[in-house]
Amino acid sequence: MAGMKKLLLLGLAVLSSGTAALEGARDKSDSPNFVVIFCDDLGYGDLGCFGHPTIKTPQLDRMAREGQKWTNFYVAASVCTPSRAGLLTGRLPIRSGMCSDMRRVLFPDSKGGLPKSEITIARALKKAGYDTAAVGKWHLGHLPPYLPTSHGFDTYFGIPYSNDMDKVAEGPNREIAFDPKSEYWDVPLMRDKAIVERPAKQETITKRYTEEAEKFIAAHRRKDAAPFFLYLAHSMPHIPLFRSKRFVGKSARGYYGDVIQEIDWSVGRLLRALREGGLAEKTLVVFTSDNGPWLIYDTHGGSAGLLREGKGSTWEGGMREPTVFWWPGKLKKGVVTGMGSTLDLFPTFLALAGAEMPGDRTYDGGDLSPALFGTGASPRREMFFYRGQRVYAARVGEYKAHFITKPAYGKGQIVEHDPPVLYHLGEDPSEKYDIAEKNPEVIETIRKIVARHEAGVEPVEDQLAR
Amino acid sequence: MAGMKKLLLLGLAVLSSGTAALEGARDKSDSPNFVVIFCDDLGYGDLGCFGHPTIKTPQLDRMAREGQKWTNFYVAASVCTPSRAGLLTGRLPIRSGMCSDMRRVLFPDSKGGLPKSEITIARALKKAGYDTAAVGKWHLGHLPPYLPTSHGFDTYFGIPYSNDMDKVAEGPNREIAFDPKSEYWDVPLMRDKAIVERPAKQETITKRYTEEAEKFIAAHRRKDAAPFFLYLAHSMPHIPLFRSKRFVGKSARGYYGDVIQEIDWSVGRLLRALREGGLAEKTLVVFTSDNGPWLIYDTHGGSAGLLREGKGSTWEGGMREPTVFWWPGKLKKGVVTGMGSTLDLFPTFLALAGAEMPGDRTYDGGDLSPALFGTGASPRREMFFYRGQRVYAARVGEYKAHFITKPAYGKGQIVEHDPPVLYHLGEDPSEKYDIAEKNPEVIETIRKIVARHEAGVEPVEDQLAR
């Protein structure tokens, strides 16, 4: 098959690790700020600029127009805890023990969390002179050694795990979720390591996260202020859905639409704060989400658009997220169809900050600078799709092979495939037409790449099973 | 149920018929030009600005940014012939005999066509002093009395029916379609009433349509030129797919993506011709398609994005199309989520041209000016979804009731529903969650509106069965 050699070479390409930052794009004396806006369970198809017909997202649409819309951007896992571990460490969660075949995520009775030995983006940037703040949902361990302020963040304000945990109301979660009130869940709201409100008043949580983030940005207006890293991880649109009074009934998409429109408002507020603070040209902002939509929750769940399946699945709908990069005057505006991942943020940020990558561990991403500044392609050529501790699927170039498939949470059975089913995601983004039979060499190449990857993974303690 | 009275009132609202044009938006001495760019079998999800991840449509994305993106815009039928009849007459095809329970569309052996008694947009605008041109696929009758130049168009250049008709190659249509060559189909290319090429060289057809349209626009640069109506109905992306050499392999979406990217190029050319000719501020351009994607053709068919089903079906994917309006300096830029339809173009254009609607017949649309100029909402409150001569479904406000359902071509069976299944399209655009049981009054309201509509339809000769 033509192009096979090229595919193999691409597959073998070692991801660069922070050395390829475009020198010209950065004034070394002026390290850029970084803001990550991370949603929870947002579907690929849930923003106006990603094709939703009734959810209005004028602020995100504008952010995409002014920046870059990434259409092949992946998260590190299809559920909350491992996905967040991947983003913050730049390493697949299998390397930190933050994914498990026993439990999907951390729970209020969990003893584990992100090990102290892991280095988060916050810790790495802190070492490079950055101020750091985490606002929102954490979900990488609620016990003191695992909280954000133990992991390189100067401050923290948010909920330590999912907003549907600590349920105290009686009745099936599903029914309660469709008419939610904050008091149905005894979720704590924390400042640094202290609980400051319980149950967290979720009706105003998006608003309060936004205000907290705005304050942090405002504190960095001074010319002599340190550069900063702000990690704003919204609790929404994870069910149960909550939104402020002024957004109730605002969207034709109902409860879910109201919630997204409040997040859109929040994005607008933050970008405005950056603009008005004279910080826009010094700040790279990334908007994405942790995993795909929770499909079993009917209209309270989101939509993956034309992608297959959702949260919990290694089909595209579970792990490809609507992603926007923004940095006025710096990024090459437009649509980027090359691959990227939350795993690439660690090396990208460190490169842009002029900081060295830690040399003592394996990273799973590369510096996206060439794609961001329009000087070249994204360095990412492959993506591994884990469910728990197993590689269910792998993408190499446009080809994706599924060795094991299982639909989104609450639906269907595990099916092992040998040979794997194979899709060309460029031609067939909805993963409808299996082309394995005609492409045995592609499958062999992907098998080799997966085997090499797996050989490089060392066993560590399962933090979710503790 | 709250809001029921409102729904009933909305449902009963008589669609305005051309009298509501915003006077201030038009200089009466200077009637605007109209360009309709009409694709064939384009899916709701197939443009970048409507969420496709790998088809690149920078020209259409720009057109949408500079104009209006309509996300609830319907065609008059889910297949070619009736959809086109609806657009050009402003009347549901049931009124002109251009839909049938016997045959879906017109074929090369058909004797019928759009009756002379029907008034097309072209004829109505001609009467108001417009120059008129049809370029591309016609499919409203290939015999002389039915061709464009018999229906108000000064000139015609294109193919009279679908590009997969007159098959001469041996073998199953499906296999041939996947590796198409022009000579497999003996489709005629016509200029006015004469065949000028047979088989039509389809490889260059999008390019030649574009050049023809550009010439027509260029001929209207003169200050004293008459206003014009250009109807450019692309043959693509109807299978068999063809594109010019320079687009071969251009898209990661393969053959289909190449074709859409050539159409995107074409759109860019026409808008540039309007700009350079000083005509942009005098010209309303509408981009849409005749019906949803032909799903049975695998990757050679398009995608309806998050909408259900495709071509041939009365589910949303069959009849909701990605639609963009453009008129620099005139339209209120943004996303319009109100309902609109190709059935509304006739009254909208006539109103903007200052022409009277013919008073001797029933129309099925209204003047979209309030939505276009941002002075109010779209007048459309209801939409009837016909398959053949029967109302399969009806939308009133955000509610859509299906009395009969059948999937897209080549799939599944007819199912009659009593009571109908009911969806709220605002909250549930993918038509997943039937809410009939909880909303009997909504169904009663929709039943009444359908009954009133059906009582107003007079039987006419079936042109497709001839």
What tags apply to this protein structure?
Arylsulfatase, C-terminal domain; alpha/beta; disordered N terminus; about 20% strand; Alkaline Phosphatase, subunit A; 2 domains; about 475 residues; four-stranded antiparallel sheet; ten-stranded mixed sheet; homodimer
CA-based gyration radius of chain A: 21 Å
Uncertain ranges of chain A: 1-28
Question: What integer is the average pLDDT of chain A?
Answer: 93
CATH architecture of the largest domain in chain A: 3-Layer(aba) Sandwich
The total of helices of chain A stands at 11
Q: What does this 3D model show about the protein?
A:
2 copies of one chain form a homodimer. Chain A has helices at 4-12, 58-66, 80-89, 121-127, 173-178, 205-218, 254-276, 316-319, 345-352, 369-373, 440-455; strands at residues 33-39, 68-74, 131-136, 155-158, 189-191, 194-197, 228-233, 283-289, 323-326, 334-341, 382-387, 390-396, 399-405, 415-424. Chain A is 24% helix and 18% strand. The first copy, chain A, is an alpha/beta fold and 466 residues long. In chain A, a hairpin with a 2-residue loop joins strand 5 and strand 6. Residues 1-28 of chain A have low confidence and may be disordered. Chain A has 2 domains: 26-378, Alkaline Phosphatase, subunit A, CATH 3.40.720; 385-455, Arylsulfatase, C-terminal domain, CATH 3.30.1120.10. A 10-stranded mixed β-sheet of chain A has the order 6-5-4-3-7-1-8-9-2-10, sandwiched between helices. The first copy, chain A, is built from 11 helices and 14 strands. Chains A and B meet through helix 2, helix 7 and strand 10 of A and helix 2, helix 7 and strand 10 of B.
